[in-house]
Amino acid sequence: MHFSKIAVALVTLTPALAQRGNPDETTPDASCNTGPDTDPEAPGDTRRRALHDFSNMFKRHASLYKERARVDKRSGQVNFDDNCNEPVPSNSGYSGVFETRRDVLEAAYADAVTLAETSQSISPGARAFLHYFGGASPEAQLDHVRRMFTGIAEETNRFTIMFECSGTGGDCPNVQSVANTDATVGEAGDEKTIHICNPFWTSASTRYLLHRDDQEEPSPPFRPATSSGWCAMSGSNSLRNAQFFATAGTSILHELTHLHALASNAGLDGDPDEDNRAGTGDFQTGCELLGARAHLVRYQQNDGSDNDVASPDYNAESYAAVATELYFETLCGFDEVRPLAGPRSSSFATPSSTPVPVPSSTPAVLATATPGST
Ligand SMILES: [Zn+2]
Predict the structure, then answer these.
(1) For FRET with 321, which of 20, 46, 293, 339 sits at 20 to 30 Å CA-CA?
(2) Which range is least confidently modeled, 32-41, 103-112, 232-241, 248-257?
(3) Distance between Cα 221 and ligand 1 center (Å)
(4) Smallest Cα–Cα separation from 320: which of 198, 189, 178?
(5) How much distance in Å is there from the Cα of 261 to the middle of ligand 1?
(6) CA of 192 relative to ligand 1 center, distance in Å
(7) 300-321: per-residue pLDDT in tens?
């Protein structure tokens, strides 16, 4: 494998913090989170935010109790700075629906766990997987993806994090990031900070939560799993393209993959020039999910002349994107999320919209992809 040089290139750009968002774009989300069709909830439409009422507030509590319980199970693992007890910014779609920033982050974290659970045994033939992973060493990629998600889905403490909610911590003031994470080397018990940047509260890519049976409005931050919500279809496929499905949980999942302890446990090679740091990097450009699709194409088409294109299992958004896509594919019964790629191999002869269970033991062919192999 040849990831070391790639990781060095990343380190040059981001010495300590791995960021979500593209610093080359001044407004990374304004044009990203829209579908190919006319989007009735285009970014900037804030009128719907006022549509919550007391019945929604009442229903919200049922969801919140479940989500708080989920975070409580990770007591000591998932922590919140006192500044996360501040109210949600008034210009956010979460304002009036959630009281504090911590409330929103608990819901988003619970969503990240849900996304990881959905994909922890993802099939190598799943369309969602083939949209984001492939090229050289697909077995190693699959192994890394499954182990990364298992490390998030399980209640075993494979990492320890602190959400910091000042909105300006870390590198937040410098880029249009919604969040950034301390990706420096450490043990599972070392607390690493995830800074939640101000754009998190208003970005088109983070203003929605995953579907909840008991909460379908207001929108944002909720959508029903119907044709007027998440599940608009064209034929047997999603009407919307992948970018439409970016959620706050997608962003949190992205940030988690930057954590050294988690990525190291998932089998990612460390960068020998950076204390063997193993967390994922941000190698793609463009919008989040669509950018991850484009990254795979770039990786697969690389003839060796481009030293800066990392394997997708070293790109944070590739994980966030595949889990998000498989979740909505399963929720809505989509055969495929746009842009359509269609069958790519004979394994697609009988495509399934649900993840295929895999044996608990690691297949021998995957066991050869051990950390440190080069
Ligand atoms: Zn990132």
Answers:
(1) 46
(2) 32-41
(3) 22
(4) 178
(5) 16
(6) 14
(7) 998 888 877 899 999 999 999 9
State which amino acid sits at residue 169. G
**Structure tokens that stand for 92 in this block:** 């956010």
User: Of the ranges 66-80, 96-110, 175-189, 351-365, which is most confident?
Assistant: 96-110
Give the residue among 261, 238, 284, 254 at the shortest CA–CA distance from 13: 284
pLDDT at 241: 94
Residue 285 CA to ligand 1 center (angstroms) comes to 11
Are 214 and 62 within 8 A, CB to CB? yes
Supply 223's token pair: 């959508």
Output the CA 253–ligand 1 centroid distance in Å: 10
Q: Is the pTM of this model over 0.85?
A: no
Which pLDDT tens digit goes with each residue over 272-285? 988 999 999 999 98
For residue 180, give the H/E element and its range: strand 179-182
Ligand 1 centre distance from Cα of residue 57 (Å): 33
Residue position matching structure tokens 């800074």 = 195
Angle at which helices 248-257 and 316-332 pack, to 10 degrees?
A: 140
180 CA distance to ligand 1 centroid (A)?
Answer: 7
CA of 254 to the centre of ligand 1 (A): 6
Residues in CB range of 180: below 8 A, 6 or more apart: 17, 18, 19, 20, 170, 171, 172, 194, 195, 197, 255
How far is the centre of ligand 1, averaged over its atoms, from the C-alpha of 230 (Å)? Answer: 25
Q: How far is the CA of 18 from the centre of ligand 1 (A)?
A: 5
